[in-house]
Amino acid sequence: MMEAVEHPLLKYLRAAMIPHIWCSGCGNGIILNAFVHALDELQIDLNKLVVVSGIGCIGRAAGYINADSFHTTHGRPIAFATGVKLAKPELEVVVISGDGDLFAIGGNHFIHAARRNIGIKVICANNFNYGMTGGQVGPTTPLEALTTTTPYGNIEHPFNLVHLAAASGATYVARWTTLHVRMLTASIKKLLQRKGFSFIEVVSPCPEIYGRHNKMRTGLEMMEWFREASVIANFSDPAKAEITPEKIVVGEFVDIEKPTYEQLLYEKMAKLMKEESE
Amino acid sequence: MPERLWRTPLDVEKISRPKAEIYILKDQCKGCGFCIHYCPKKVLEESDEINARGVHPPRVVDEKNCVLCSFCTAVCPDFAIFVKEKQCKDGC
Ligand SMILES: Cc1ncc(C[n+]2csc(CCOP(=O)(O)OP(=O)(O)O)c2C)c(N)n1
Ligand code: SF4
Ligand code: SF4
Ligand code: SF4
Ligand SMILES: [Mg+2]
């Protein structure tokens, strides 16, 4: 056993910001790890990568990655990312944000970016609650789950994010848990190589807040839930891929191609300019 | 494995198993235990020592059992552990 050497992936991170602020056993670190693993395996040019996140615990991710990154206002990372992508379509633009940020306050940005097939890539850390603000109920909190704002059990039906993404028109849709690090990394590599709107939901432990209220006090207990409940069902019907205490359906659900918004936009502009000059 | 398929590989003498070098950045560890729990070969265990963050970082039980799968590296949320293949030029 050795010590005092540099982690091989440190070059993809802003060294001065590491160690990160996330709690012990928080899945956000695993998502960051899988993301930089994918960057490394694809040898992605960090000068061509833009990472955008919103507000929340996972929102810190953008700041930890050693690329141009934006930590935007709550719910708006997709709007920022859309602007970057349309101005500079040659850049790879990735949004990493939370279930609350992307699907509560930012829900409309998500469905319309997917519908328009804007070529941005979205990774959602779904930890079933608003971690940063103390654990309020959110749009993915399972029925009957306890949160600080549902002390008697949640009575709101949760979004099924992969179904929502597929129905909105996303060209690549996958869901993994933070225990499926290998599949997750492979999926992130796919996401980075695709042209159209692509989405990965990562079911992620928030032991400090969500787990504490739901009898899973440690990251390990939450990961054990994922291990026991996960069922891999690639290309199964996303409508049936719900998340319950007994079952978490994971896998790839959509992998299709269609013209992107920026491609159609630039083609249209070129055509109109040509007509005008004639 | 069915018995009839089993035989000792002919080149078993010549092939050496890659050896691992496990690096633990002790003070970066937050003690989640993922690496220890999910190592398929039970190479790691919780140590008695308390690091700068007040938790017990992992320690290596037996490096020889490591199969270099790197799962510990991939699952660590805190970039506190990684594995490299030992360069055995001079024998090890
Ligand atoms: C406009 C606005 N409304 C509300 C907030 C408060 N706020 C900060 S983070 C957050 C929710 C974060 O939840 P999520 O996106 O799931 O991220 P997590 O912390 O769980 O990783 C809220 C409501 C804010 N910062 N700005
Ligand atoms: S509160 Fe939850 S999501 Fe936020 S850093 Fe802690 S464990 Fe992670
Ligand atoms: S590389 Fe694999 S076998 Fe070796 S310590 Fe890590 S998890 Fe265990
Ligand atoms: S996975 Fe990382 S943070 Fe967790 S116990 Fe192992 S070395 Fe420490
Ligand atoms: Mg959340």
What would you say this structure looks like, in words?
- The complex is a heterodimer of chains A (278) and B (92).
- Chain A is an alpha/beta fold and 278 residues long.
- Chain A has a single domain (17-277), classed as Thiamin diphosphate (ThDP)-binding fold, Pyr/PP domains (Rossmann fold, 3-Layer(aba) Sandwich), CATH 3.40.50.970.
- Chain A has ten helices and eight strands.
- Chain A has helices at 28-42, 61-64, 77-87, 99-105, 107-116, 161-168, 181-193, 207-213, 219-229, 261-277; strands spanning 49-53, 68-71, 92-98, 121-126, 172-177, 198-203, 230-232, 248-255.
- An eight-stranded mixed sheet of chain A has the order 2-1-3-4-6-5-8-7, sandwiched between helices.
- In chain A, strand 5 (172-177), helix 7 (181-193) and strand 6 form a beta-alpha-beta unit.
- The mean pLDDT of chain A is 97.
- Chain B is of the alpha+beta class and 92 residues long.
- Chain B has a single domain, classed as Alpha-Beta Plaits (2-Layer Sandwich).
- Chain B has helices spanning 34-38, 71-75, and strands at 20-24, 44-46, 58-60, 81-85.
- The radius of gyration of chain B is 16 Å and the shape is elongated.
- The chains are: A alpha/beta (278), B alpha+beta (92).
- At the A-B interface, helix 1, helix 7 and helix 9 of A face strand 1, helix 1 and helix 2 of B.
- Bound molecules: thiamine diphosphate, iron/sulfur cluster (3 copies) and magnesium ion.
- The site of one iron/sulfur cluster has 13 residues of chain B, from helix 1.
- Residues 56, 98-100, 127, 129-131, 138 of chain A line the site of magnesium ion.
